Amino acid sequence: MKRTLLAAALLLAGTSAFATTGTINFNGKINGSTCPIEIVNPDSGAVGNLVQMGAPRVADFPNLGAEAGGRSFSMRVPGGAACGIDPDNPNTATVTFTGVQGGAGADGSLYAIKTVGGAATGVAVALKDRSGNPVKNGEASAAYPLNVTGATEMFFTAVYKSTAATVTPGAADADVSFVVKIN
């Protein structure tokens, strides 16, 4: 009997030696995007959020409202139900761009250049839809028909537009946010 109690005591003592406490860390993200939109540079096919605008000369802006430089780009919407595209009722999509208003007294169609040391002055960025119409800050673009079975390329153009009679040289970067709405 003494052996059984001693064995049971050793077994219990050995079992409690393996008990431990700790912490489990969970890491993740809740994504609010319903559809992964890609920004595509049509010249190279590269995907990313940077559109290279080029480097027009001050002389390319001879007067107020002159346009120069710029690039086309597309926003690629994947096809299928994951993006809410109904195969029985083809959808369209619009894009709303928002950013800091560019130019004094502008009509809402210009996006401001970042005001950093050495930045260009007298110029802003203008965005245009596939038909060349301005896409105003905070307003939906023209509707783009969506491809039910494959990706849709929504084409836009970004150009520099002078907002003053005189443009000065310097960095001409702008940040513009977007929301794609599938209708």
Describe what this molecule looks like in 3D.
With 183 residues, the chain is mainly beta. It has a single domain (23-168, 175-182), classed as Fimbrial-type adhesion domain (Immunoglobulin-like), CATH 2.60.40. The protein contains one helix and eight strands, in the order H-E-E-E-E-E-E-E-E. A five-stranded antiparallel β-sheet has the order 1-2-7-5-4, with no helix packed on it. It has a three-stranded antiparallel β-sheet with strand order 6-3-8, with no helix packed on it. Mean pLDDT is 81; it is low at 1-16. Keywords: Fimbrium, Signal. This is Fimbrial protein.
Question: Which SSEs are present, and which pair or pack?
Answer:
Blueprint: H1 2-16, E1 38-40, E2 67-77, E3 92-98, E4 110-112, E5 123-128, E6 144-145, E7 152-162, E8 177-182
Antiparallel strand pairs: 1-2, 2-7, 3-6, 3-8, 4-5, 5-7
Give a brief rundown of this model.
This protein has one helix at 2-16; strands at 38-40, 67-77, 92-98, 110-112, 123-128, 144-145, 152-162, 177-182.
For the structure shown, list the relevant keywords.
globular; Immunoglobulin-like; disordered N terminus; 5-stranded antiparallel beta sheet; mainly beta; 1 helix; 183 residues; 8 strands; 8% helix; 3-stranded antiparallel beta sheet
Count of domain modules? 1
Percent of residues in beta strands:
25-35%
* Total strands: 8
Indicate the overall shape: globular
Unreliable stretches (pLDDT < 50, length at least 5) are 1-16
GO cellular component, one term: pilus
Pfam family, one: Fimbrial
Main location: other
Keywords: Fimbrium, Signal
